[in-house]
Automatic annotation (TrEMBL):
The keyword Transferase does not apply. Residues 113-480 form the Solute-binding protein family domain. Residues 1-30 form the signal peptide. GO terms for molecular function: peptide transmembrane transporter activity. This is Peptide ABC transporter substrate-binding protein. The lineage of its organism: Bacteria, Bacillati, Bacillota, Bacilli, Bacillales.
Amino acid sequence: MKKGKGWLKPLALLSLTGALLVGCSSGNNASPGTATPAPTKKPVEQVAPQATSTDDEKPIDGGTFTHSTTSDIVTINPIFGNDTASGDVMEYTQAYLYNRNPSFDLAVYPWSLAAELPKISEDGLTYTIKMKNHAKWSDGTPITADDLIYTINAIKNPETGSPEITKYDKVKEMKKLDDYTVEIKLTQLYAPFAFGLMQKLAPAHVLKDVPFKELQAHSYGKDPAKTPTSGPYKWSEWKQKEFHVLDANPDYWGEKKPHIQKVVYKIYADQNTQVQALMKGDVDLVDSIPVTQLEAVKAKGNINISTEPGPSYEYFAFNFDKKNFPNNYGLFEGQKTRQAIAHAINRQGIIDNILKGTGKIMDAPFLPGTWADPGDAAVHYEYSVEKAKQLLKEDGWVAGADGILAKDGNRFSFEFIFNSGNSRREQAAVVIQQNLKEVGIEAKPKALDFSALVDQYANPGKFQVLLLGWQLSDPDPDGISTFGKKAFPPGNNAGWYDNPKLDALWEKAVSTVKQEERAAIYKEVGKEISTNLPYVFMYQYGTPRGMTSRVKYKDEFKPVSMIPYGETFGFLNWWIDDTKK
């Protein structure tokens, strides 16, 4: 346990960290890259968010902060809202029971609804949660244990249709010990459960009489007038596909009150329009600047840029179901074959030329720098045509008359699919095709509409190779729901990857709550998964973010690129200063 100073520091930390969720965001609009190992131009420097004020500057109360987006919300009901836009608005309006800190640890802040970290029984099956006794909804109703119990019951009930249902499927029973204390018992030991408690709550006093199957259609979360909020801002107005207005709640319960008095969440038609609005000073935050416009934004001089990679990574996934290949011949059965492909793809060249330096090579599906990151235990595959050719030869592949490798009468030719409209993947696909051709492999890229790709190919596991991305947005690193046999299609293990040794390691890692023991197991996981390779883990990536210099914050409250919604981390401590324009 750690204790820190200041509003940013949590009262205490519980170190657990990072699982996987699908990420399908569109890429940047960079010009096509090359397949050469050296970049065609000097990559951009990795720029992290920095303090925008000095220690002697005092915060100013008032002002309006404009956060831009290209999509509107669905709902700010925490039981259902899981899209990015809804999440953005909820970051301002709805409080978490527990928060995460910049290191991805579970944390209690002055703006958290919990009073302390959960107390976990020695057997790991019982969690006792103590809530603050002074938190209130924006309509003045106290936030209590009833809200916590109601929210979990609603989410775990199949009739509700909540996308979060698996967070609480191991909850056996809940007991209200007093108005602000809840005891939760699990059916089995499950270390990631603690992070399921990073939950925004729904108001029981508004929704308790609504049948679960009718909750999704209810006006709560869709009508500002009928949506009391638990966070520092009230939802005052929504003009669909144009903007939301969020006003600071004068009766906000938190010890730390917001300096900025109004937030406008403004919706634009596309990224280019967003960026133009940023450069004109019409908005304060754009969290996805196409790299082709980055230099123009920098030239304005009054916009702070961050190019740090975020929590997403790209992958090149093999399919191990032989039915997807001619003659039922699995092209990727050989471990050396998969390793050869990892050596053949010039990952750093893609980072330098297509991502313009705004990415980092990934060797295993763990967020770099977190406690579960296996580090050097994961195998690194440097770009080497010679090494790739040697491994392919050792695995029995022989060049045919057309230069394409063959084995057992089967040409090494396959199709790899990705979502159309994603310029990052479109350009990377060209490089991958060229790279693999150099070692005698015919890889044929095919762009598909994303919904069709998911419904017709990924979910049923009917493809040969996928080029897609994942987001490490869950603070726990358990990956069995992505790589385990139990997750075969229609689960997340779309490529039918079967590795009993790895499955046992994943299960072992969630069967203890001791972080040091889990970390040691994840080192084994990192070594096994990077050696055996269900995917070629490509690179961690992010999109450049820009914020106007009128927004001020001290270094301890700066945006955090590595956590979801980290672009407004510490927002309560920010202020607007228009005096130095």
